[in-house]
Amino acid sequence: MTQALTTEEQSKDRYFQQLAKVAEEMVEDHGKDFAAGALVLAARWVAENRLGTPQDVKH
After folding, report:
1. Distance in angstroms (rounded) separating the CA atoms of residues 25 and 45
2. d(CA 27, CA 52)
3. pLDDT tens, the chain, 59 aa long
4. CA–CA dist 50, 59 (Å, integer)
5. Closest C-alpha to 23, from 10, 40, 8, 6
6. What is the rounded CA–CA span in Å between residue 17 and residue 59?
7. Helix (H) or strand (E) holding 14
8. What pLDDT shows up at residue 58?
9. Which domain of life does this protein belong to (predicted)?
10. What are the DSSP E strand ranges found in the chain?
């Protein structure tokens, strides 16, 4: 018996699908190292509350 997903679970699933698509595109365009680094950097920005705020980004 399969249990239906809650509204929150459905929302989270959509975000995971979007992340997977973006990650696949980054790998295709720039390789695995770039994709992994970009996703780790994005996770770091989330953890540090730095999204949406101008910061000195070192390239």
Report:
1. 21
2. 25
3. 778 999 999 999 999 999 999 999 999 999 999 999 999 999 999 999 998 866 665 65
4. 16
5. 40
6. 28
7. helix 7-30
8. 61
9. Bacteria
10. none
